[in-house]
Amino acid sequence: MPKSRGEESHVPRHVAIIMDGNGRWAAGKFLGRIRGHIAGVGAVRKVVRAASDAGVRYLTLFAFSSENWQRPKPEVEALMLLLERNLLAEAEELAREGVRVRIIGKLDDLPKGAASAARKTEEITGGGRKMDLLLAISYGGRQEILDAVKKIIVDGVKPEEINEETFRQRLYAPDVPDPDLLIRTSGEMRISNFLLWQLAYSELYVTDVLWPDFDEAEFKRALDVFASRERRFGKTSEQLTRD
Q1: HEC letters along 53-120
Q2: What H or E segment, with its residue span, contains residue 30?
Q3: Of 20, 22, 132, 180, which one is the catalytic site residue?
Q4: Beta-carbon count within 10 A of 178 CB
Q5: Measured between alpha carbons, how far is 178 from 171 in angstroms, rounded to an integer?
Q6: d(CA 135, CA 31)
């Protein structure tokens, strides 16, 4: 059944997710960490479909942070192989569903196979218009800000010309609006160097559910909580009423 205009207004345009808890999920089942990451891929599939069905226009997933390179080498290699295989395996289906995949982060840091798979997936899904799926890979929020500053310097922007918009235009995905909602799984109360500039006024939703167990119902629960909140953007309730 089509959503009414009132229902659509409560759907966040952009949802960002810190997918946390794969390792703890595996440990709780006496499995190796890699099994947790494999299970996490299944959760990604469910949430991407749920977000698309709900009318979310942009979904950003924190897939691999710049700090994750410090993990044990076998785990990193397994994660890169999972990334390579699953991107290519899902690309055609995502394209059919109208989902456009975009990579933000330091793609050149990835092994050749994973980087190639990422670029190929972007190419295959490039025509998607229903939802943009941004995958933050080898990504760090501080590094994104530093890279934006470097671009401002290289572009010769004068100090008096620097404002939020000139800065935004030099971020990794300048056309994408800031997240309306940030979801973090596994109960951790931090944003872990993720989208530091963009999360200034995002609503935060933290759940104790570990990422491999985060499914369509959990995603809907997060959207329902978002819909029940009054977004202030630094204003008081009285100011919002006047506006």
Answers
A1: HHCCCEEEEEEEEHHHHHCCHHHHHHHHHHHHHHHHHHHHHHHHCCEEEEEECCHHHCCHHHHHHHHH
A2: none
A3: 20
A4: 16
A5: 11
A6: 26
- The active-site residue, picked from 68, 147, 193, 215, is 68
pLDDT in tens, 21-78: 999 999 999 999 999 999 999 999 999 999 999 999 999 999 999 999 999 999 999 9
Where is 191: in which H helix or E strand?
none
Per the annotation, the verdict on 20 as an active-site residue is yes
- pTM for the structure as a whole: 0.91
Question: What torsion do the CA atoms of 216, 50, 60, 39 make, to the nearest 10 degrees?
Answer: 50
203-215 pLDDT, tens digit each? 999 999 999 999 9
